[in-house]
Write a structure and sequence with these properties.
- This protein is mostly helical.
- The protein has five helices and no strands.
- The protein has helices at residues 20-41, 50-67, 77-98, 105-119, 121-137.
- The two termini are 20 Å apart.
Length: 138
């Protein structure tokens, strides 16, 4: 029987016990939620133009996953959570600028906080739940 540390990265579950595909779906859904909330909070049509706002952050998310090999440990805070968050934020903002979309300092700050709460936050919760289950098992 293999231990979680020596488990093959090609398995459907990470070394942190978080399944890969739900982690991918959750990250993408949370970035999309960030975009939809942002558009709605500015009185913009939430769905119209959402793809234009979403794609730079999605691209940053994908790069973050690739850079830190997130599929190996999708539930890890470090490096996965931090790198995925930073890449989503930084590359998302850079791609917005390159594509002619506006950014403002306040937007960068709000996006940084919200994306951190979303992309790092779910990992903190997953690790806390996992630790609590491990304590109960003894």
């Amino acid at each position: 029987m293999s231990s979680p540390v020596t488990e093959s990265p090609s398995r459907a579950t990470s070394t942190r016990g978080v399944p890969i595909w739900p982690a991918v779906v959750l990250d993408v859904a949370l970035v999309l939620l960030f975009v939809l909330i942002g558009r709605g909070s500015h009185g913009e049509n939430v769905l119209a133009g959402a793809l234009v706002t979403f794609w730079p952050f999605f691209a940053g998310l994908v790069v973050g996953w690739l850079v830190c090999l997130a599929w190996r440990r999708p539930g890890a805070l470090w490096p996965t959570g931090v790198v995925v968050w930073a890449a989503t934020l930084v590359l998302g903002m850079l791609l917005r600028v390159v594509s002619g979309q506006a950014i403002a300092v306040s937007f960068v700050i709000v996006a940084g906080v919200v994306l951190a709460v979303f992309l790092i936050g779910w990992r903190v919760i997953a690790l806390a739940v996992s630790a609590a289950r491990a304590r109960r098992r003894g």
